[in-house]
Structure formats: C-alpha cells, structure tokens
From TrEMBL:
Name assigned to this protein: Cupin type-1 domain-containing protein
Native species: Basidiobolus ranarum
Record's keyword terms, sorted: Metal-binding
CDD domains listed in its UniProt record: cupin_OxDC-like
Any Pfam family hit: Cupin_1
Cupin type-1 domain sequence ranges: 2-138
SMART domains documented for this protein: Cupin_1
C-alpha cells in the first residue's frame, strides 16, 4: 500500500483489520523516520507496543508512571516494548532513515500525540496547568490532526 502518512520527517504504512480482515486484535506500522524527523511524543492509552529496528539509529525516551524518563539507544536488530499508557518518543540520531516495524495489541493503536492534545486546551487552562500567566506562554499552533511524525528542530544528542 502507499504510505497514508508521508512528509519530509518520514512515512508510515499500516496493516490493520480495516485492510486485512484476518488481523484480530493486532495491527502494525512500517515506520520510517528521516534524518530530519522524529516520532512526536505520544502515548497509547489502551495499547501496548513492540517494535523491531530494521535500519538506522535512534534515541527512544519513555516516561515512567512516576514521571522519570529513561532513554535508550536503538540500533538495527534491537527490539523494544512499551507498556500501555507510557508516553514515549523516538528521535532519529543518524544520517540515514530509521526504519522499524511496530506491532500493537489492538486493531488500532489509539495514538494520542502531544501536539494535537495540547491544541485542544485553552491558553488559560494551559497557563494554569504550567503555573504561569497566559502572557508567558508562547503562541502554540492549532493542530487539528495528529501529525505522527514531525521535523526535528532540536540538536541531535551524541551517541555515548
């Protein structure tokens, strides 16, 4: 199938019950993130995620229930697992695309990205949540549709 999501940051192809009726309670992404992109911070409230890294290098950061962050180096041949409802994101840290196959334990991953989520709140609500005055908040763009992949504008952390 052609990639339903495609941008300068990468592309995603999906395999799910909608297209393959045999797939009950499982779905998959073939996700490519370019050296210019990252998988935006997101979580899956009711879906666990497991993936195989086919190509490239990336940092994966996972937020634990207590709020601490763990960051892992992903390289070809690695497999990772993210429990349900753990926020996480992936940054390409190489000079080539990263390609990974992601498997979910639901018909759809129920993906909630931070960019689209934060767009649903008023500036006043966000100011209260962050404990600041509305005038201190930057102008945030409204995002009606979760982009899945975004262009990385932050510097790449070196591999240690």
């Amino acid at each position: 199938m052609s990639a339903p999501i495609s941008s300068l940051a990468g592309s995603a192809k999906t395999a799910c019950k909608k297209f393959w009726p045999i797939l009950d309670d499982i779905s998959m992404y073939s996700l490519r993130v370019t050296d210019e992109g990252m998988r935006e911070p997101h979580w899956h409230p009711t879906t666990a995620e497991m993936a195989y890294i086919a190509k490239g290098n990336a940092w994966m950061t996972v937020m634990n229930p207590g709020g601490s962050l763990d960051t892992y180096l992903l390289k070809p041949g690695d497999v990772y697992f993210i429990p349900r409802a753990y926020p996480h994101h992936i940054e390409n840290i190489g000079d080539q695309d990263i390609h990974f196959l992601i498997f979910f334990d639901q018909n759809t991953p129920g993906d909630i990205g931070f960019k689209a989520s934060i767009s649903g709140y008023s500036r006043e609500t966000l100011a209260a949540a962050f404990g600041t005055n509305v005038v201190n908040l930057p102008e945030l763009p409204f995002t009606a549709i979760d982009p899945l992949l975004v262009e990385r504008v932050n510097p790449v952390d070196p591999i240690e």
